[in-house]
């Protein structure tokens, strides 16, 4: 289902060229907020979209070249006020470009259902009809019906930054030992006792040559307990506490015969094992290129997100058994569905789903434990870190979205933590980054993420060199 056009005249009749059609909102009896498609239909539509449409519009529906976005603010503002009948007719009569109308009405309706789901409109109990005259009774409203209610900060599908913020920010709750200041950190976690663990970069943004111990333990009240790991790492990056309260850390950079490894410690600081080869950056079954993050399942299976430099080296998810033996890998470098470019974070949900922060592609990808792609979600922003809690909520930290061209260019999106449903991908809340002018910095706000048993969110900040905690407001 290609939307690339050969000329300006052809573009004028494309899917997003609206001059040929007129809104029929006055005839519409329902809106897309009324649950007008089913999840099953959207699943069929997703398969059809990936086969026929993704080559031009991209796996994240963001558009490429002349192919316009099918999701997000530009798409929704263009179609706001029209009907699904208009959208269905335009899709069916112009796409695929070389063979319009060839997919069948049912397939076009399925693809339309997937587009609706991708844009955050709710599913219902009845499938979309496959005739435009029936779809003409459904109005495409970009804004939620309750948007604008007094005191209501509810988001709209057209505003990825408009979700309510039910959290208050707490800073300086950790009491560092005398003479110690917090360095850049992308690692924070909480163990079963409520103790808070942080891996900073030795008071700076690197531990190379530093005598400081970067792995720090604090009790539940934020009092410093101990630190360990001095002289072992170059660039502490990914951090995880497993079901045994073992501490896992990835060292992302190679320098001085160290780096490109994944370490496991017990909570006293005793090294249990180191995976990979010290100082060797390579793609292999027993080596890593730039290990970004690690997550460990309850059965001990280890997942490592590998590859930090865009356009260079391997970008993959590595799966190891509980003894650290290589099982498989997936995700070559790129932007197609199932590919990854800078897989910066990884999380597990306990139900056989692996969540990957595919940062360079501005999306979260969801796989099963064997690497089969299940979901592609751009609605959480440009993800650096993520966490899935026991209740099935997904927390995603966007630390890089920027308006200017260049690194982090992601117009329309603000930095912060987006929270949603780990099964459906529906976003429900947004905790904005409080950096004064984030467009002037490459990173700000949380990168590493954790959520404790009380629902408090912890964010490890590289730019601000801090760990912050977000606590629910009364009534939030």
- CATH hierarchy, class of the largest domain: Mainly Beta
CATH-defined topology of the largest domain: Neuraminidase
From the alpha-carbon coordinates, what is the Rg to the nearest angstrom?
23 Å
Number of beta strands = 26
Helix percentage: 10-25%
Quaternary structure type: single chain
CATH architecture verdict of the largest domain? 6 Propeller
Instruction: Order the strands across the largest sheet as they lie in space.
Output: 3-26-25-24
Q: Quick one: CATH superfamily of the largest domain? A: TolB, C-terminal domain
Calculate the mean pLDDT score and round it: 89
Tell me the fraction of residues in β-strands, as a range.
Answer: 25-35%
Distance between the termini: 44 Å
Low-confidence stretches: 1-26, 146-157
Shape: globular
Structural class: alpha+beta
> Largest sheet, described in full?
4 strands, antiparallel
Structural overview:
Helix 5 crosses helix 6 (105-118). The chain has a 4-stranded antiparallel β-sheet, with no helix packed on it. It has helices at 8-12, 39-52, 54-57, 73-79, 84-94, 105-118, 132-135, and strands spanning 30-31, 138-139, 167-170, 185-190, 196-200, 215-218, 224-228, 236-241, 247-251, 261-265, 271-275, 291-296, 302-306, 316-320, 326-330, 343-348, 353-358, 363-368, 373-377, 383-388, 393-398, 416-421, 427-432, 446-451, 457-461, 466-472. The protein is 12% helix and 28% strand. It folds into 2 domains: 8-139, Cytochrome Bc1 Complex, Chain D, domain 2 (Orthogonal Bundle), CATH 1.10.760; 167-472, TolB, C-terminal domain (Neuraminidase), CATH 2.120.10. Strand 25 and strand 26 (466-472) form a beta hairpin. It is an alpha+beta fold. It has 7 helices and 26 strands. Mean pLDDT is 89; it is low at 1-26 and 146-157.
């Amino acid at each position: 289902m290609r939307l690339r056009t050969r000329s300006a005249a052809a573009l004028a009749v494309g899917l997003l060229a609206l001059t040929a059609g007129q809104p029929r909102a006055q005839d519409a009896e329902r809106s897309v907020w009324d649950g007008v498609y089913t999840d099953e239909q959207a699943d069929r539509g997703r398969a059809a979209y990936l086969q026929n449409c993704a080559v031009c519009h991209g796996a994240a529906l963001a558009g490429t070249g002349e192919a316009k976005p099918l999701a997000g603010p530009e798409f929704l503002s263009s179609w706001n006020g029209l009907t699904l009948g208009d959208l269905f007719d335009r899709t069916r009569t112009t796409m695929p470009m070389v063979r319009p109308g060839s997919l069948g009405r049912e397939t076009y309706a399925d693809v339309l259902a997937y587009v609706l789901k991708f844009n955050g409109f709710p599913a219902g109990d009845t499938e979309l009809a496959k005739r435009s005259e029936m779809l003409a009774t459904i109005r495409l409203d970009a804004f939620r019906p309750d948007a604008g209610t007094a005191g209501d900060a509810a988001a709209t599908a057209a505003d990825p930054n408009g979700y309510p913020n039910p959290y208050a920010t707490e800073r300086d709750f950790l009491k560092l030992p005398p003479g110690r200041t917090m360095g850049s950190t992308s690692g924070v976690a909480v163990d079963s006792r409520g103790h808070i663990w942080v891996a900073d970069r030795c008071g700076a943004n690197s531990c190379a040559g530093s005598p400081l111990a970067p792995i720090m333990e604090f009790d539940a009240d934020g009092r410093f307990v101990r630190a360990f790991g001095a002289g072992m790492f170059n660039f502490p990056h990914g951090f995880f506490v497993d079901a045994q309260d073992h501490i896992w850390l990835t060292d992302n950079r190679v320098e001085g015969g160290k780096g490109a490894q994944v370490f496991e410690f017990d909570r006293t600081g005793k090294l249990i094992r180191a995976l990979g080869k010290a100082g060797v950056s390579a793609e292999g079954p027993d080596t890593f290129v730039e290990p970004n993050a690690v997550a460990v399942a309850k059965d001990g299976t280890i997942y490592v997100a590998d590859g930090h430099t865009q356009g260079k080296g391997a970008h993959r998810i590595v799966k190891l058994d509980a003894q650290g033996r290589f099982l498989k890998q997936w995700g070559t470098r790129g932007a197609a569905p199932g590919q990854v470019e800078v897989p910066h974070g990884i999380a597990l949900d306990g139900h056989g789903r692996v969540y990957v922060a595919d940062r360079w592609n501005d999306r979260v990808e969801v796989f099963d434990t064997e690497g089969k792609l299940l979901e592609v979600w751009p609605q959480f922003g440009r993800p650096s870190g993520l966490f899935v809690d026991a209740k099935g909520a997904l927390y995603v930290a966007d630390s890089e979205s920027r308006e200017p061209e260049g690194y982090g260019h992601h117009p329309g999106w603000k930095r912060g933590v987006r929270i949603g449903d780990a099964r459906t991908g529906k976003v429900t809340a947004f905790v904005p980054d409080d950096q004064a002018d984030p467009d002037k910095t490459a990173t700000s706000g949380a990168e590493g993420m954790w959520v404790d048993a009380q629902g408090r969110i912890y964010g490890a900040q590289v730019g601000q060199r801090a760990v912050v905690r977000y606590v629910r407001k009364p009534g939030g």
